[in-house]
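Subject: for your reference before the review

Hello V.,

The reviewers asked for a structural picture of the protein, and I figured it would be easier to keep everything in one thread rather than splitting it across files. Below is the amino acid sequence we used in the manuscript, unchanged from the supplementary table.
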Amino acid sequence: MSWFTLLTTTGTLVCCALPIMLVTLGLGAAVASLTSAVPFLIVLSQHKIWVFGFSAFMLALSGWILYRPGRKCPADPETGRLCHRVQRWNRRIYWMSVVIWGIGFFAAYMALPLQLWLEG
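And here is what came back from the structure prediction:
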C-alpha cells in the first residue's frame, strides 16, 4: 500500500507540478517536448483536481492503515523484529509521500497565485 501511495503522489508531481515549475523557470520548451513525448500528461493535467483528490484519498487511507488503533506486531521475536522494521519503512515511505504531495499541491495550486500576489 505504501508503494502505491508513493506512486500516486509522485504522479501529482509529474503531471501537474513539474510542468508548472519548468514554465515558471522559463523552460517552456522543455515542457513542450515533455508533453509531446508523453501526451498523457496533458490529460492528467486537465484533470488535476481528480489526480490530487485521488492521491489525497490514498494518503488518508495509508495513514489510517499505518496508524490505526490496535495495530500490533506478533509476539514471536524474529517475526516481531521484522514487523517493526517493515512498519518503520512504511512510515518513512508514507511521510515521504506526504512531502511529495505537499510539494505538488503547492506548485500546482499555490505557487502562481503567490507569485502574482507578491508582484502585485
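For the response letter, the relevant points are probably these. The mean pLDDT is 83. Residues 2-119 form one domain.

Happy to draft the paragraph if you're swamped.

O.
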